[in-house]
UniProtKB/TrEMBL annotation:
This is FGGY-family carbohydrate kinase. One of its GO terms (molecular function) is kinase activity. It comes from Olivibacter oleidegradans. InterPro entries: ATPase_NBD (IPR043129), FGGY_C_2 (IPR049382), FGGY_N (IPR018484). Coiled coil: none annotated.
Amino acid sequence: MKIPVIAIFDVGKTNKKLFLFDEHYRIVFERSARFTETVDEDGDPCENLASLRLSVFDSLHEVFRKDEFEIKAINFSTYGASFVYIDESGKPLTPLYNYLKDYPQTLKDQFYKQYGGEENFALRTASPVLGSLNSGMQLYRLKHEKPSIFKQVYKALHLPQYMSFLISGKVYSDMTSIGCHTNLWDFQKSGYHEWVEQEGILDKLAPIVPADSVFQASFPGNNYAVGAGFHDSSAALIPYLVSFTKPFVLLSTGTWCISLNPFNEEPLTSEDLKADCLSYIHYQGKPVKASRLFAGYEHEQQTKRIAAHFNVSTAKFKNIAFDTHLANKLQEQTDQSAGMSPQESLAIFGKRDLGKFRTETEAYHQLMIDLVNAQKISTTLAIGASTVKRLFVDGGFGKNVIYMNLLAEAFPQVEVFAASMAQATAVGTALAIHQSWNSLPFPNDIIELKYYAPVKKVAS
């Protein structure tokens, strides 16, 4: 008896993975690859699109040869802000330009001058001014710098939809890519911004389909469904939207700590944008308020500084227990960063004199207090006026007991949980098209939760 499975391609900047999930969302097969980057015509590093395309076909050939599995569906999640420009035969016309590629200042100034100024434009499109990270600006650049190539473009596909096209032969767009700081979508009118039509770009964009759409495969094999593909940060939210109905915020922690609130539909303000808070659109087409903080990176830098000062290994900080009395004492002496932006608050520990701490444990507790104070400001922006009941923390900080206890104290009005699940992005991408391949009901046990209660302060 063959096991019914879904194949998910999860394409990050560094690692490209293929997972097979069974109907219980357990991983039954996994393959990982890393490709050497290539360069574009300016010598800037970029994804090796040819290697990526070959890898998809090689991987599928491999899993189709496995007699124990029956592939019922395929879907894709990839990093965002990346366009593949194809001609009418489906051939890419340019390299896959890197979203970190420098954007020409003159062209940027010309764009914002013509379309209402940076602040007004950013508010309407929920897109802070990010250069190439605003993927619509890559299209604008192609039109103005390489008009002959632009004329040949049949469709511009975000990377997840290009990968779906490789298997289905169909060209579509999806809102999780369009709605994420692309400069393309006008959140006030719920449609493309007027510049897209004025510049002749609308014709180059494929029709938008719902995120749970599936198509027939043109790739040989059994009769299986092909999903339209997802922007990875939207995919990671899906298991939580499927599992919980009470309003929540997901705090996804890594190098960046991103607070995602799918229950806040307030329009963005200029202050939000300045504090690195924006909106994007999740897989059901609704806006998500999201605030970012570079807290994982700051934690890494400051733990190195503490380790060097006290002559200990950074590994020591992985297992430091939470000391309530020490935390209380340090908090009494800590200015709560009133009136600061999240970024200003995040910089506080870097200015502290480590000579004032008696031990590395004391210094580390102070670092975590400062980080959580900054996180509170950032996450509060995403919460806004919404009545959030729960705060789920996934990623690295969810495993840090000092961080989690301090966070529970910082948000006494909500239930704070460390949440863990293997491969949230890939699972979300599979869940989005659950009805198309899975004969079982939605699972209710794919996320492990650990509750953290606010610690009662004890008089010393």
